[in-house]
Model the fold of this input.
Amino acid sequence: MKYVDIPNIPAELIEWDIDKILEIENEFQLYPHEYTSHAVSDELNNYLQQYFAFDIAAKYQVIHTNIPRHIDYDRTEAYNYILYAGGNNVHTRFWIDNIMISSTNIKIKRWHKLNVDTEHDVVGITSKRVALTVSL
Done:
């Protein structure tokens, strides 16, 4: 995990109401009780585009419970911006050969980049964790 130098998002562009986010169609149906993915507004996507050198389709991601170890199947890296941490002691952990190589409590409202083609999990979730995500 690495923090990156992308400005904070203007608050008025973000949907802060989790229930309203969840009303948007879920684009990730594999584990809908644990993780959902929802399109952001065109206005927010267009605003974010200026900070990326490739075409983006930003999403809200909602993590409902702890996420077991996995490798993302459709992307290798992700830029994330956490809106709600999901608890006071949430950690994103990375693993190689069943050995934990890092554990990070990622700060809210800070852009960061994750290598999601490395096995990772999210633990300590006590409430919904909501982030904006941009995939590579």
Observations:
- The longest strand covers residues 77-84.
- The beta strands are 2-3, 35-39, 59-63, 67-70, 77-84, 91-96, 99-104, 111-115, 120-123, 129-135.
- The radius of gyration is 14 Å.
